[in-house]
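Exercise 7. Given the encoded structure of a 224-residue chain, write a plausible sequence.
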């Protein structure tokens, strides 16, 4: 099995002016593509991992041969995280979540405004390269919380199910926003895809446990 770069679900310029077309093209066609290429190249040496999905590789780090463990983890993480990222944004995005997701955000953060502050502050504080997430914690009754990860780590490795993600590596914003990460995070709300977050909220809170496949063909397993 070869891991495949999913196409961007919109044009490079679709998220302008908040995210510029050149950043989107480099980010998807160069950065994300290189994680997929490196993952495939590494896995060529390990036919026993041939049928494993990228999320399986992330969640089962200890079952990957030690010589390849770090590289597989970083590149599988880069692949999974960016695949989620493209869909966490939309040219039709922005606004506020509705329905059950909105209710859960209010329950766990107090208000939508407080959630936004928490997410933006956490993203701003990531030291170096990393990610900021809204996750559902199955082990805690589906409680929503904001988390950050460094490098290409993904909350799935902790059994936490990602609903929303933003990339705070410099390559995600530096061409347009230079060193002003808070400015990028503030503008990001205009393209946030709440429909996708709501779709993932249903996956996280539904009766379905075990392996789930999203449209990108990536396994987005909950921890049963
Ligand atoms: Mn990136």
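Solution.
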């Amino acid at each position: 099995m070869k891991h495949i770069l999913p196409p961007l679900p919109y044009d490079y310029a679709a998220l302008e002016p908040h995210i510029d077309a050149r950043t989107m093209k480099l980010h998807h066609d160069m950065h994300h593509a290189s994680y997929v290429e490196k993952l495939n190249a590494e896995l060529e040496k390990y036919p026993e991992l041939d049928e494993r999905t990228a999320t399986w590789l992330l969640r089962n780090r200890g079952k990957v041969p030690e010589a390849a463990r770090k590289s597989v983890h970083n590149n599988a993480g880069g692949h999974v995280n960016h695949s989620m990222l493209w869909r966490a944004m939309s040219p039709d995005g922005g606004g506020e979540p509705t329905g059950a997701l909105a209710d859960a955000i209010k329950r766990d953060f107090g208000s939508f405004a407080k959630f936004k502050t928490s997410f933006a502050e956490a993203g701003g504080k990531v030291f170096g390269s990393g990610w900021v997430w809204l996750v559902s914690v199955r082990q805690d009754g589906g409680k929503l919380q904001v988390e950050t990860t460094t490098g290409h780590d993904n909350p799935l490795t902790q059994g936490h199910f990602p609903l929303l993600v933003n990339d705070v590596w410099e390559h995600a914003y530096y061409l347009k926003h230079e060193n002003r990460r808070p400015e990028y995070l503030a503008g990001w709300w205009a393209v946030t895809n709440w429909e996708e977050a709501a779709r993932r909220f249903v996956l996280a809170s539904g009766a379905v446990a075990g392996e789930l496949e999203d449209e990108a063909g990536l396994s987005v397993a909950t921890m049963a």
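Remark. The CA atoms of residues 57 and 217 lie 15 Å apart. Students should compare their own answers with the one above.
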